[in-house]
């Protein structure tokens, strides 16, 4: 992931040409004293993130990570095909880590892992960043002023062609 950036003291929104994938992945330490169970799982993600940062052809655009009892990584990918290809690539860091987790932990309850995948088609999203360094989609996409006709979430949604209210959905 990129180094920390300066705070942008303005109201911005981010765009990314074409669709993308928002991938949320994490682990939860359920039994803290069983370090031998959760520590290998915790160490696997930084290896994967370094690998992904060094190989942009895999489709990983960037992301953010937070630690604690529940660890979460927010990732942006260019396509679902690239994300799934990485998950299955025999020479990449993910597949051995996944197999190791299943061998060491499986469903014994000591460590939880989870992920959620969202495929975003075209411009079917909206965002805003105020007094923030480039973050989230704003870190991997293009930042632009969220002013004038793009001042509100509703306006940004409508400008992207997304129905902004249940009554707008046909």
Structural commentary:
The chain has helices spanning 35-54, 80-88, 94-104, 137-140, 153-159; strands at 8-15, 20-29, 60-66, 70-77, 111-120, 129-132, 142-145. It has 170 residues and is α+β, with helices and mostly antiparallel strands. It has a 4-stranded antiparallel sheet. Helix 1 (35-54) packs antiparallel against helix 3 (94-104).
Uncertain segments: none
How much strand content do the residues show? 25-35%
Please trace the helix and strand order, writing H or E for each element.
EEHEEHHEEHEH
Rg from alpha-carbon coordinates: 18 Å
Widest sheet: strand order?
3-4-2-5
Gap between N and C termini:
40 Å
- How many strand units? 7
Estimated helix fraction: 25-40%
The helix-and-strand class reads alpha+beta
Average pLDDT number: 90
So what's the overall shape? elongated
The biggest sheet amounts to: 4 strands, antiparallel
Number of DSSP helical runs: 5
Tag the structure with descriptive keywords.
single chain; 170 residues; alpha+beta; 4-stranded antiparallel sheet; 3-stranded antiparallel sheet; 5 helices; 30% strand; elongated
Secondary structure topology:
Blueprint: E1 8-15, E2 20-29, H1 35-54, E3 60-66, E4 70-77, H2 80-88, H3 94-104, E5 111-120, E6 129-132, H4 137-140, E7 142-145, H5 153-159
Antiparallel strand pairs: 1-6, 1-7, 2-4, 2-5, 3-4
Helix pairs in contact: 1-3
């Amino acid at each position: 992931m990129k180094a920390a950036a300066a705070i942008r003291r303005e109201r911005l929104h981010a765009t990314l040409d074409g669709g993308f994938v928002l991938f949320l992945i994490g682990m939860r330490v359920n039994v803290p004293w069983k370090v031998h169970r959760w520590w290998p799982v915790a160490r696997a993600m930084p290896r994967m993130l370094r690998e992904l940062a060094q190989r942009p052809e895999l489709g990983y655009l960037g992301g953010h990570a937070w630690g604690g009892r529940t660890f979460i990584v927010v990732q942006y990918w260019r396509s679902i095909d690239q994300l799934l290809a990485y998950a299955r690539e025999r020479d990449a860091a993910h597949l051995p880590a996944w197999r190791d987790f299943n061998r060491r932990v499986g469903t014994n309850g000591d460590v939880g892992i989870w992920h959620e995948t969202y495929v975003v088609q075209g411009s079917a999203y909206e965002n805003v960043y105020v007094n923030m360094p480039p973050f989230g989609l704003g870190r991997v996409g293009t930042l632009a002023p969220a002013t004038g006709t793009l001042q509100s979430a509703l306006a940004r949604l409508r400008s992207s062609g997304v129905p902004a209210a249940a009554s707008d959905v046909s």
